[in-house]
Amino acid sequence: QSVLTQPPSASGTPGQRVTISCSGSSSNIGSNTVNWYQQLPGTAPKLLIYSNNQRPSGVPDRFSGSKSGTSASLAISGLQSEDEADYYCAAWDDSLNALFGGGTKLTVL
Amino acid sequence: QVQLQESGPGLVKPSQTLSLTCTVSGGSISSGSYYWSWIRQPAGKGLEWIGRIYTSGSTNYNPSLKSRVTISVDTSKNQFSLKLSSVTAADTAVYYCAREADIVATISPWFDPWGQGTLVTVSS
User: Fold this and answer.
1) Tens of pLDDT along A15-40?
2) What is the pLDDT of residue B107?
3) Core-most of A60, A69, A101, B91, by most CB within 10 Å?
C-alpha cells in the first residue's frame, strides 16, 4: 500500500465537478509540495499539476489543485469524456524519496 | 524540447540483472540543474519511484530497492542507465525514465517529461 492515500475510484457525468483526494503525513505532503499526474489508458503519465496548484502550459483550467496541511486535492470541473484516466498524486518525503499515491481511476459515466 | 526513450531487453531471467538505458534527445543531459529518474509500474498497479541521478553522479534510491539498484549516467552519450539485480517476477513492470524539474526552481521537483516506457518481464 502507498504512503499517499487516494480513493481507488471516482466517477462523474459530463459537465460535473469531481474531486480526488490525496492524504499523507507531516513528513511528506505536510512539508513538501504536491504534484499530480494523469495517465490515459496505455500511455505514460503526464504532468497535470505541479507545486500544489500550478498548471503546465497546455493543461486546461478545468483542472485545479489545492493543498491543506497533510492533504491535497485535485478538482476537475466541466468533466469531459476525455478526462477518463488514472490520476496520481506525488510528493517527496523528508528523506528525499519520491512517493506516489495508489492512483484513482476516474470514470466518466 | 527534451524527449526521453527507454531501451533494453524485454525479458530477463529470475536472479539475473535487469539493465535499461534512457536516451535523452533534444537537449544535453548535462545542461541545467536536473535530476534524472527511473519509475516503474506493474501491470494494473500504481507508480513506484526507483531512484534518480544528478549529472555529477549523485544518486538517491528508494529504500525498498536500494540494495539491488544502481543508476549511472554517461554524459558523453546523453544517457543514464538502470541496473536492478537479483530480479524476481515481482520486478515485472513497465519501466519509465523521466526528468525532474530544475532543482534551482524547486526543492520538490516534478517529473516532466517522461519516456514512453518499456515493458520488462521477469520469467524463465
Assistant:
1) 999 999 999 999 999 999 999 999 99
2) 80
3) A101
Q: Region B8-16: what's the mean pLDDT?
A: 97
Query: Would you give the DSSP letter of residue A54?
Result: B
Three cell numbers at B88? Answer: 524476481
Separation of alpha carbons B63 and B17, rounded Å: 18
Residues B121, B9: Cα–Cα separation, whole Å: 9
Q: Rounded to the nearest 5 degrees, what angle is found at the Cα of B50, between the Cα atoms of B23 and B96?
A: 40
With beta carbons under 8 A apart, name residues in chain A contacting B37. 98
SS3 A83: helix
Grid coordinates of A15: 459537465
Binary contact (A56, B112; C-beta < 8 A): yes
Say yes or no: B4 contacts chain A, CB-CB below 8 A. Answer: no
Joined together, the cell numbers standing for residue B12 give 530477463
Pairing of strands B48-54, B35-41: antiparallel
The chain-wide mean pLDDT, for chain B, equals 95
**CA triple A96-A102-A104, angle to 5 deg:** 130
DSSP of B100-117: EPPTTT-SS--EEEE---
Cell numbers standing for residue A55: 498548471
How many whole angstroms separate alpha carbon A13 and alpha carbon B13? 46
Give CA–CA dist B34/A11, Å, rounded: 36
Of A92, A102, A103, the CB nearest to B108: A92
Give kind and range of the element (H or E) at residue B39. Answer: strand B35-41
3-state SS class at B66: helix
